[in-house]
Design a protein that fits this description.
Layout lengths: L1 H7 L6 H5 L17 H23 L15 H28 L1 H40 L6 H10 L9 H20 L16 H21 L10 H6 L8 H17 L1 H4 L2 H27 L13 H28 L5 H8 L1 H18 L7 H25 L8
């Protein structure tokens, strides 16, 4: 029991909780030695998806962390490789925030305000600082193919007036902000009771439907002014945090983190029924399949593709609502599916899950290095993507495992 309790104290509601290295907090109805293995496994697979998404960005011509593949991508490669790139900003990052929010209340309850804030600064603040001061400059140096020495490049680069580095740093910074706001909310409301019933009835379909429609409307309203992939961010703090898409995805990120905090108090992750999982996966499938012909017919009738990305257009409203149904449906369905099918871990899976946070932080450096090394190799873009992915994924986990096992360093990772 003492050992199990010690393990639960390692749980973090910050990025480490979102990337799979932490021991989840326990539902109050669960035995003390219970661990949500399926959440660990979800985060592990999601980290793999992040790496694949970053590699894909290079070979569909978008570029990643300042690196652009000199070989022009063709339509077939852009379509096949672009599939993960379409889902990742929407569903993937929202699920990260949902899971992070789920473990936040339990961590705060066990540690108290001071210890909670200290752990957030250690596990999120220090990696954010290291990434922005060390990893990001090195990635940019490699991506630009500088011939000068790194240290000649490093000084002037740091003196530039910059936002938080591109790549993964925006998520760490945003999650740190959410945790600080949560701590402030708990401190301001400390006279309110937080010791009420920790379990409650699951939300019914009508309640979930209301949340989905409201989320879609919020996304639509935000994108009237800040469409997807706009160059300028709507506020100074979004520019500072370098959030991809500016404010276009913020309604989802904020609402999913808050929803995760609420779900934690009610143990929804372990309470979702198999029927709910099947139904909402089907709803997500209908949302993504059903919108495709509508988009095609709309463009054929004269609508511009940008009309679906934002602005006061019915196409943008349709896309926002379909995105909300897709995000919520995939989150519910994935939680149930993993709980039913992959709620256990062997030694290898546990080692990979423990290394996931480090993988999240160092994958950009490895991706750009591999892509730069293969930049002069004339291969079909889709083939280069497959080769790069097969190299980067195991290499990232190998380096991540080494970092996680390194004394002192493993206190951060």
């Amino acid at each position: 029991m003492a050992r199990a309790r010690q393990e639960t104290e390692k749980e973090l509601s910050g990025l480490s909780g979102a990337t799979g290295i932490a021991t989840p907090n326990l539902p109050d109805s669960a035995p003390a030695d219970t661990r949500l293995w399926f959440v660990d496994n979800m985060r592990l697979l999601m980290i793999c998806g992040v790496v694949v998404y970053h590699v894909a960005a290079i070979y569909i011509g978008v570029g990643f962390n300042g690196y652009h593949e000199p070989v022009t991508s063709n339509a077939v490669s852009a379509f096949v490789v672009g599939i993960p790139a379409l889902l990742a900003p929407s569903f993937g990052m929202g699920l990260f925030f949902l899971i992070a929010g789920y473990f936040t209340p339990g961590s705060y309850d066990r540690k108290g305000a001071a210890s909670f804030l200290r752990s957030r600064l250690v596990r999120l603040g220090i990696p954010l600082l290291l990434y922005d001061l060390l990893v990001d400059p090195l990635v940019v140096y490699i991506a630009r193919g500088h011939h000068e020495s790194f240290w000649s490049f490093y000084g002037p680069y740091l003196l530039q007036v910059r936002t938080i580095g591109p790549g993964v740093a925006w998520f760490i910074a945003t999650l740190l902000l959410f945790n600080l706001l949560y701590a402030a909310w708990r401190w301001l409301g400390k006279k309110l009771s937080h010791t009420g019933p920790k379990s409650a009835a699951l939300p019914d379909y009508r309640t979930i439907l209301g949340f989905v429609i409201s989320l879609g409307l919020a996304i639509f309203v935000v994108r009237i002014w800040w469409p997807i992939h706009v160059e300028e961010w709507p506020t100074w703090w979004l520019r500072l945090f370098n959030i991809p898409g500016g404010g276009a995805f913020l309604p989802q990120y904020i609402s999913f983190f808050v929803l995760g905090c609420i779900a934690s108090r009610r143990s929804w992750f372990v309470g979702l029924t198999p029927k709910m999982g099947r139904d909402w996966l089907l709803i997500a499938l209908v949302a993504i399949i059903g919108v495709i012909p509508v988009i095609i017919l709309g463009i054929a009738a004269g609508a511009q593709p940008d009309d679906y990305l934002g602005g006061f257009h019915w196409q943008a409203l349709l896309e926002a609502e379909c995105e909300a149904f897709l995000d919520v449906g995939l989150c519910i369905g994935s939680l149930v599916l993993f709980r039913q099918c992959w709620n256990r871990q062997g030694r290898l899976t546990k080692a990979l899950a423990d290394s996931a946070y480090a993988v999240y932080l160092i994958n950009s450096l490895l991706i750009v290095s591999v892509a730069q090394a293969f930049s002069t190799v004339a291969l079909y873009p889709l083939l280069k993507f497959i080769i790069a992915m097969l190299l980067v994924l195991p290499l990232s986990f190998l380096v991540g495992f080494i970092l996680h096992k390194t004394p002192l360093v493993n206190r951060i990772f």
